[in-house]
Design goal:
The chain has 287 residues and is α+β, with helices and mostly antiparallel strands. The protein is 22% helix and 31% strand. A six-stranded antiparallel β-sheet has the order 5-6-10-9-8-7, with helices on one face. It has a five-stranded mixed β-sheet with strand order 2-1-13-12-11, covered by helices on one side. Strand 7 and strand 8 form a beta hairpin.
Length: 287
């Protein structure tokens, strides 16, 4: 972890105001970021956000207790049921089979939280292959190639063509040596970001699509999702004690100049800088 200046020595607190279908929830994310890299190609990096005394907790990965009842409650509030989620997951299986018919060495890895296809690409151990050929038309951006791939495999991804077209281009660049190019798209709903919602892809110098890292929230009806995130100060008052911090008077005062439509910054300096951020948080496919 890099050294921090005296001015940065105080902790910061980021509160994400999230909507699960029509359910509002809260995530507490402390300031420190640690990155563990298993490779230098950008696909093996994982960013871990926590402090030793504030470990991460993700309800979607917690198999103990009443998690099944909690998820069922979220589904019900969003107007979904278990069969809807099961149908989406069956679509993933069918989409994988369809793509594998064209790419026999295809390997798809599902993530651990909402169990969607996360790593999509040919198995490099078996043979040299790519998700697309090197037929990118002159002048066509890598982002367009990725968008076309997502549309051609939308049952595997679980999003509609319209939702794919609405993705924001966060990055589209080529390494200085020109051998690899990278594209990253971000998912927004009603101008509000989706927690970890996005998709990355890598390309060879010849334009072949190497691999896709997918974390798009699938199976959602954007028009039916709640836009009521509640009062951000309520999130601040709830979350601060969870982080072991007692709010002071100035901490509850919004800093209008440093705020936006999706983020509200509180406090006037002191021990903590506190930001409440609107964010959609998927709990399962379609929810």
């Amino acid at each position: 972890m890099s050294k921090r200046s005296k001015a940065d020595a105080h902790r910061s607190l980021l509160l994400c105001l999230v909507v699960l279908g029509v359910i509002a929830g809260i995530i507490v994310v402390p300031y420190h970021y640690r990155t563990n890299a298993s490779g230098g190609n950008g696909f093996g990096q994982r960013t871990v956000i926590h402090e030793d005394d504030l470990p991460n907790f993700d309800i979607r990965e917690n198999a103990a207790g009443r998690i099944s009842d909690v998820l069922a409650g979220y589904r019900s509030a969003a107007g979904r049921d278990a069969s809807y989620v099961a149908a989406l997951r069956e679509g993933f299986v069918q989409g994988e089979a369809g793509l594998k018919a064209r790419i026999p060495t295809l390997k798809v890895e599902f993530n651990y939280d909402i169990h969607i296809p996360e790593v999509i690409g040919p198995d490099p151990i078996v043979s040299r292959a790519f998700l697309t050929g090197a037929t990118r038309p002159a002048g066509r951006k890598h982002a367009d190639v990725l968008i076309n791939f997502l549309k051609e495999n939308n049952s595997l991804i679980g999003t509609s063509d319209q939702q794919i077209d609405a993705l924001h281009i966060f990055a589209d660049y080529t390494n200085p040596d020109g051998n690899l190019s990278w594209v990253e798209l971000e998912q927004y709903i009603n101008s509000v970001p989706v927690f970890r919602g996005g998709v990355k892809a890598g390309f060879t110098k010849q334009g072949e699509l190497i691999r896709v890292l997918n974390n798009l929230a699938p199976g959602l009806d954007y028009n039916s999702l709640s836009t009521d995130f509640g009062d951000p100060i309520d999130a601040v008052r709830f979350a601060a004690p969870q982080a072991g911090y007692q709010l002071k008077t100035n901490d509850a005062l919004p800093n209008r100049a440093a705020s936006s439509n999706t983020k509200v910054r509180f406090g006037a300096g002191g021990d903590w800088d506190i930001t409440a951020e609107k964010m959609y948080f998927p709990t399962e496919p379609g929810v």
